[in-house]
DNA sequence: TCGATCCGCAACCCTAGGGTTGCAGGAGGT
DNA sequence: ACCTCCTGCAACCCTAGGGTTGCGGATCGA
């Protein structure tokens, strides 16, 4: 019923460098070269990360002349958050129900 | 201001096998051996995954005789979701503000 | 036109970590 | 006491992927 766990997006978020990138893009849009100047990794490494983030829908690219400006998509992150919250609530609801049954029928 | 990005928890969630485990534990608590019987991986692999999940606070262990029963902690997942949602909203708010300024002062 | 950037592709290195097998220790059941 | 089942360590294999360097193509500014 619930959609398959969004592992791809979570994997994209499971990296410190990518969070550093997202932090900067969440403050203001900028290009890969800009990011490379502010972070301790090469531009190509950043390009790879941006590709992953774009694939995951967490970032959007916008070509502006020879530069490519990226911006963080907060709505995507919030959407992911909603799905996780729903799953978490689902677990607790089911487990609480089981606990209640165990209480009412105490044959351990 | 905002707490450091919860990369550890996200990394714990960035794996299909662990989601399979969480799905089962979210339906009803069970032991590592139980899980090994229902999943196509060895018990030791599952034990490693459970250690990761426990470390991330997404699962709780409860010793019952010689068995160790695990259960999913939905509240933790929901808490993580809240943090992500807040971050996402933060990005959009800041970027929207920048867009508004650019609109009011259009010297591209 | 020429130089300075900016991007994209490709090859390569190296570690993190998911998976396996094997074995030893304990707790239960009969 | 004995056998069974579950857990915990340890060593090991192997791929995914984060990082680097190097090069070639394209675009902007002077």
Number of helices of chain A: 5
- The geometry of chain A reads as elongated
What about the largest sheet of chain A? Answer: 3 strands, antiparallel
Q: What is the typical, i.e. mean, pLDDT of chain A?
A: 93
CATH architecture of chain A: Orthogonal Bundle
Strand content of chain A: 5-15%
Question: What is the straight-line distance between the termini of chain A?
Answer: 32 Å
Biggest interface pair, residues each?
Answer: A-B, 40 and 40 residues
Q: CATH class of chain A, please? A: Mainly Alpha
What is the SS-derived class of chain A? alpha+beta
Helix fraction of chain A by DSSP (H/I, runs of at least 4): 55-70%
InterPro entries (chains A, B): ArsR-like_HTH, HTH_ArsR_DNA-bd_dom, WH-like_DNA-bd_sf, WH_DNA-bd_sf
Protein name (chains A, B): Transcriptional regulator
Domain HTH arsR-type (chains A, B): 1-92
């Amino acid at each position: 019923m619930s959609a398959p766990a969004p592992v791809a997006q979570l994997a994209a978020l499971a990296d410190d460098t990518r969070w550093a990138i997202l932090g900067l893009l969440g403050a203001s849009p900028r290009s890969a070269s800009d990011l490379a100047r502010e972070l301790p990794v090469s531009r190509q490494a950043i390009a790879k990360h941006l590709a992953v983030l774009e694939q995951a829908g967490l970032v959007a690219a916008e070509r502006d002349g020879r530069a490519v400006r990226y911006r963080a998509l907060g709505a995507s992150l919030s959407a992911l958050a909603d799905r996780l919250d729903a799953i978490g609530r689902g677990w607790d609801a089911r487990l609480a129900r089981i606990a209640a049954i165990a209480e009412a029928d105490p044959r351990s």
